[in-house]
Amino acid sequence: MSGADEIAALDFASVTPEEFARLVKGLSAKEISEIAEDSTLRARVLKEVFGRMERQFKPDVAGSLEALIRWKVTGQGTTPEAVYETKITGGTCTVTEGRSDAEPRVTLVMGDADFLKLVSGNSSPVTMFMLRKVKIVGDVALAAGLTRYFDIPKA
To answer: Which InterPro entries does the protein's record reference (predicted)?
Structure first.
């Protein structure tokens, strides 16, 4: 069974963030491409990852932070770009799918593979930026510190 098949067979509700991180770490670039090219599976994975952001948010660390973060996960081939927004305000984090009319404090643009590696703790955001695997528009300092506001698993 390929890594993409393993991801497709997952019952996301029963998978811990650590288990997901280990699965992502074990995926080859080809397997991540297979996930990205399967629009139904890609949508499931993105929805689950962004849905968990609210639960993995650390309000005590965020304090009085007020920010709208826009995430653009670029598609490949015929796969369209996916856009999500994370709003941090009043010690809470809410995630919505799609682009709002609000002006984000920072926008992060990256491909599917780099997004999965970032959110699963399998890649350093600073390294990704330096290697131009993630494009940051807006508050670079906020982007650099984003990982501290979430309980990101380690594989």
So the answer is: SCP2_sterol-bd_dom, SCP2_sterol-bd_dom_sf
pLDDT, tens only, 112-130: 888 888 888 888 878 888 8
Backbone φ and ψ for 50, nearest 5 degrees, come out as -70, -35
Q: In the 8-state DSSP scheme, what is residue 101?
A: S
Phi first, then psi, for residue 108 (nearest 5°) are -115, 125
Burial of 149 (0-12, 13-18, 19+ CB in 10 A): buried
pTM: 0.87
CATH number of 3-149: 3.30.1050.10
Radius of gyration of the chain (CA): 15
Identify how many contiguous H helices and E strands the chain contains and give both numbers.
8, 5
Q: Give the integer Cα–Cα distance in Å for 151 and 39.
A: 27
Average pLDDT of the chain to the nearest whole number: 87
Give yes or no for a contact between 93 and 57, defined as CB atoms under 8 angstroms apart: yes
